[in-house]
Amino acid sequence: MKDSPKLAVVACAALTAFVLVGAGCAKKKVAAAAPPPPAATAPAPQPAAAPAARPVPQPVQAETAPARRYPDAATRARIDELLAKIEDAYFDYNQHTLRPDAVVALKADATELRDIVTQYPDYKMTIEGHCDERGSEEYNLALGDERAKAAKDYLVGVGIPDTQLAVVSYGKNKPVCDEHDESCWQRNRRIHIVASNSK
Q: What is the pLDDT of residue 46?
């Protein structure tokens, strides 16, 4: 039994080796199958982009003829009638302020005249200032100008645009009467309105 201790050592060694090998094997685990990769997830839905904004169609406007800046023949004829009806406005001797009867003469058809001519900005009128034969040429030209301006101020006041009214003075150069008395002179101290352009 001499060999018994040897045998015990060998058996012990073998057992230790077995345990160690078994323990090593026990520690060594079989690699578990790798988990499947995560399921491919669809990208998170992006908010739908707003469709490209289409231009909002503008309402179709009927083709309109551009506004006329000058009256047609029929309208000019009506203006001429009104100008003929607006009596000359008369002034006192050596005065340029409108008398009440002059205001009445201007007012009679000025409203209708205004309503027509304001629609046609290229239509122009001239207010002529006149004087009687007394006084110098220079004085009467200045007085006739003041009379025309007084009438223009009145017409602008009722709504006729300033840009459509011009003034001119003829002084004593265009009398309507050639007698040398007060009744004739009174007829010459006046303003008269005429169309100043024609097409």
A: 62
Span 85-117, pLDDT tens digits: 777 889 999 999 998 988 887 887 788 889 999
Q: Report how far residue 192's alpha carbon sits from residue 88's, in angstroms, rounded to the nearest whole number.
A: 5
Look at residue 162 and tell me if it is in a domain.
yes
Question: Which domain, by its residues, includes 137?
Answer: 73-195
11-15, 71-75, 138-142: range with lowest mean pLDDT:
11-15
| Structural domains counted in the chain | 1
Q: Tell me whether residue 67 is in a domain.
A: no
Sheet architecture: strand order including 89-90: 89-90, 190-195, 125-130, 165-171
User: Residues with Cβ < 8 Å from 174, sequence gap 6 or more?
Assistant: 128, 130
> Rg of the chain over CA atoms, in angstroms?
56
pTM (two decimals): 0.64
* CATH number of residue 173's parent domain: 3.30.1330.60
Q: 194, 83 in Cβ contact below 8 A?
A: yes
Angle between helices 137-157 and 100-117 (to 10 degrees): 60
